[in-house]
Amino acid sequence: MATETHGAEAVSTCVDSHGSAVGMPQLCGDWIGNQVFWLVITLVVIYFVLARIALPRIAAVLAERQGTITNDIAAAEDLKRKAEEAEAAYDKALADARAEAQVIAQKARDDIKADLDVAMEKADAEIAAKAAGSEKAIAEIRDSALANVEVVAKDTAGAIVAALGASADDAKIAAAVDAQLKG
Amino acid sequence: MATESAETADGGLVFHPMDQFIVKPLFGHGEVGMFTITNVTLWLFLAIVAVVLMMVLGTSKRAIVPSRSQSVAELAYGFVYKMVEDVTGKDGLKYFPYIMTLFMFIVFANFLGLIPMSFTTTSHFAVTVVLALSVFLTVTVLGFVKNGAGFLSLFWVSSAPLALRPVLALIELISYFVRPVSHSIRLAGNVMAGHAVIKVFAGFAAIAAISPISVLAITAMYGLEILVAFIQAYVFTILTCVYLKDALHPHH
């Protein structure tokens, strides 16, 4: 360094009168004691700073981080498992509900069918009753018609007999008409 | 240094690439004694401040979701922790704070040294030798305490043919004692060389014709030095782990 040539008296055998180094300053014996002394102090200080404060602290932080990561992974696994369980429960509930709905639908269908059967039966019975009543009425009407035919025939026969100028009593005419009707 | 007096007569081109490594008192111009507060003291202190800022203040919120500074601190923690675990095994983890101290100090000292006009503490052999020797002594003592005489099996390569073993033992022994030397010189040498080269390029910037090239070269070197600052801290730390592994498990 050219700027360091301000004239100072040589305070060491390793420095010339201009303040420049004589030979290698590394080999100058005058300074070794000083360097070693301060170096040892420095190393001891750094050692205590590291061993007492810095290294335990960093080790703790790293361990804590490792623990946190492990815990987080475990928690994530746990949550995943829970989600799977919830999904399974949901699926099961869905299947149950579907089965129940099927049962209810079947029951409703059965109920309606039973109601329908009863109503049908009733309706059939009514229809049958009505048909029987109608048949009876028809039979009555037919019977009364036949009776009327008899009466009309007798009356007509009596009138015809009278118109022909003959007279016949009613009993004869009735017997004759009956005989004709039966024949 | 040869470049020391490389002055041209006309342009005043002056190279003092090593002046940046001079240790001087922070207050006054007196002599540097053992306890003098020097620029070394200042930059070591700033390294402490940087470590505290990042590792203590940066993590003060203890957030589960970290802030930027906290994640950098956690990154540094994880980086060194994994290195210790991978290289030395589980039983090396109780030495993790020591290795973390080494790494944090070197990495911050290196990067603080990259601030222009700063003083690079790790460019001095006095500093790196203390670091390397403390690792060497600790590891050697630990090896004998943990394994007793069994630690010597580190030098007795049982997988080699018997005839070769004494030779290998000699080589292993020499390489073992060279460890602290290479360990320390590697770090200081890399850091010092890079800083000196930057300074040399800066000296060339005084000549207008080549100053653009000089500035480009400084920029490129600075980028390289940023890599070196981290890589050398990493290398120093991982070698410490390797040596520690040898002490804990000496059997090949």
TrEMBL record, chain B:
Membrane topology listed for this record: Multi-pass membrane protein
Molecular function GO labels: proton-transporting ATP synthase activity, rotational mechanism
GO-annotated cellular components: plasma membrane; proton-transporting ATP synthase complex
Keyword Hydrolase: no
Protein origin, superkingdom: Bacteria
TM region positions: 32-57, 95-113, 125-145, 151-175, 196-220, 226-244
Alphabetized PROSITE patterns for the sequence: ATPASE_A
UniProt subcellular location: Cell membrane; Membrane
SUPFAM superfamilies per record: F1F0 ATP synthase subunit A
Protein name: ATP synthase subunit a
Annotated organism of origin: Mameliella alba
Lineage of origin: Bacteria, Pseudomonadati, Pseudomonadota, Alphaproteobacteria, Rhodobacterales
